[in-house]
Design a protein that fits this description.
This protein is an alpha/beta fold and 161 residues long. It contains eight helices and five strands; from the N terminus they run E-H-E-H-E-H-H-E-H-E-H-H-H. Helix 5 links the parallel strand 4 and strand 5.
């Protein structure tokens, strides 16, 4: 069975607060609706050890956070280690943190953990605003402005970042 067809039984949440609570509620509702095993795993730091999302999750794992709580959610190595420790099948990133991190999604692929979100290729395609508008134009979506830059302007634009 391919990764895209594999059943998810252990979903790790790489987010916190209300974002994590929304996902946990959805996991529990889906579990009840489908009558299939599906566990929500909260990853948390000491800053959130008493937070509702940690208590409401089926399982919770503390992330080491020597550089602070936010850094723990951006540490690819630490996250992959935590995901392996929890035997997560998939990751829901919510928004922020690693939700738009193509490199992290590639690391998940290498670890054979599904990512509930866009592929790294899609992230890269739409992460560059000019390329995203050009992609939209090719798909027949009406766009305004910048997409009509010629490719000679691109190196100058990149140097200005």
């Amino acid at each position: 069975m391919s990764r895209s067809q594999r059943e998810i039984r252990r979903l790790a949440i790489v987010n916190r607060g209300e974002a994590a609570m929304r996902c946990i509620r959805a996991v529990k509702a889906l579990r009840e609706l489908e009558a299939k095993p599906l566990d929500a795993i909260a990853l948390f730091t000491d800053a959130d050890r008493d937070a509702p999302f940690v208590r409401y999750a089926d399982h919770a794992l503390r992330l080491d956070a020597p550089r602070g709580a936010v850094a723990a959610y951006l540490d690819h190595d630490g996250l992959i280690e935590a995901l392996r420790a929890t035997r997560a099948d998939a990751v829901w990133p919510g928004w922020g943190f690693v939700a738009e991190d193509a490199e992290f999604v590639e690391r998940l692929r290498e670890a054979d953990i599904a990512f509930l979100g866009p592929s790294p290729e899609a992230m890269r395609a739409v992460g560059d605003k000019i390329a995203a508008k050009q992609l939209a134009e090719r798909a027949g979506v009406p766009v305004r402005g910048v997409a009509r830059f010629n490719n000679k302007a691109r190196p100058a634009m990149q140097g200005a970042r």
